[in-house]
Design goal:
mainly alpha
């Protein structure tokens, strides 16, 4: 009996201690949160009128107009692309891809590249999918070709490009050819020159990155849409700032020469990290640049950007990510220049 009473007494003491901790923690949060709200209210009350006046100036109004236009145009395609991508990740087993690909890597590379046109997915999802394909025995060269092509030439991206560039079907065709050519060529280059020590292959015994079922679909949809939507807004804001803040004299220095405009937008695509379902609208807003430079922006972005570099380094190793991303950037720029010179 005494033992039971002692146990209950200890449990009661723990309950009281936990309650005290909760009260203290809530009090601290309330004090800190209240102080933060007071500080924010003070700053807003002081700077609010000044900011409101600034919003009525023509440059700021133009900035808001460009930002809103790019974001509103891109969101529907971003949502459609993430829905399809989440559905593929949740309901399509990776073994389907392995059965469809030829065993010969030289033949499997173009097949995997073309498969990206009918199996859409965002660039964030393509990295774990490629790792899963390698884990199931797909040749790394074919998996890498799919990694590059899926976010760049899928139907959602091409339709979005056609709407962002109305009356310019050659821009859609140019994006398709340059992106597919880059993906296939990089796959062949890896099959010929890639070394196993550069690539940290995912272990065959590890579980699949993707779960299955409706819960996995909803989780993937929420993650991809919110993640990519943030990059869309950032990209739209950067494009608006670029159009408004950069002096016309500086733009003329780059826009007057394709040799300067193409690498500038190719580097900008790496930094902005705009989702492939929405980057066409950002590229269309950069109307001061020649078509080939905007093509390079759309070809490079889904294949090489900062978030992809981090994802590839975490999945396949830093040695692979640095080499593969650098080579992909060079091939993508060269393909954009060749296709742009031919079609645009």
């Amino acid at each position: 009996m005494d033992g039971g009473v002692s146990v209950r007494r200890v449990e009661n003491q723990r309950t009281v201690a936990d309650g005290v901790r909760v009260v203290v923690r809530a009090s601290v949060y309330a004090v800190l949160g209240g102080a933060a709200l007071v500080a924010i209210a003070t700053v807003v009350s002081v700077l609010g009128p000044l900011l409101a006046l600034d919003l009525y100036t023509p440059p700021v109004a133009a900035w808001w107009t460009v930002l809103t236009a790019v974001a509103v145009q891109g969101v529907p395609f971003l949502l459609l692309g993430t829905v399809v991508s989440a559905a593929i990740g949740a309901f399509v087993p990776e073994r389907v891809f392995r059965r469809l690909l030829p065993r010969n890597p030289a033949l499997a590379v173009p097949v995997a590249g073309i498969a990206g046109a009918v199996l859409p997915g965002c660039e964030c999802a393509s990295v774990p999918v490629a790792g899963s394909l390698m884990r199931r025995g797909v040749a790394p060269a074919a998996a890498l070709a799919f990694l590059l092509s899926a976010p760049a030439i899928n139907p959602v991206v091409l339709v979005a490009t056609s709407i962002a560039f109305p009356g310019q079907p050659k821009m859609v065709l140019a994006r398709l050819l340059a992106s597919l050519g880059t993906a296939v060529l990089m796959g062949w280059l890896w099959a010929r020159f890639g070394k196993e020590k550069w690539l940290r292959l995912p272990g065959r015994g590890t579980p699949s990155v993707h779960a299955t079922g409706i819960r996995a679909f909803l989780t993937g949809l929420q993650h991809d849409f919110l993640h990519a939507g943030g990059f869309l807004v950032l990209g739209a804001a950067a494009a608006a700032t670029f159009n408004i803040a950069v002096p016309r004299s500086v733009l003329d220095l780059f826009t007057g020469s394709p040799w300067l405009a193409v690498p500038l937008l190719a580097v900008l695509a790496v930094v902005l990290c705009v989702c492939s379902e929405a980057d066409a609208f950002v590229a269309a807003s950069l109307s001061a640049f020649p078509p080939t430079a905007r093509l390079a922006f759309m070809v490079v972005g889904p294949m090489v950007d900062l978030k992809l570099l981090a994802l590839q380094a975490g999945t396949f190793g830093r040695s692979f990510a640095v080499r593969f991303a650098s080579a992909t950037w060079v091939v993508a720029v060269a393909a954009s220049v060749l296709v742009g010179w031919w079609l645009l």
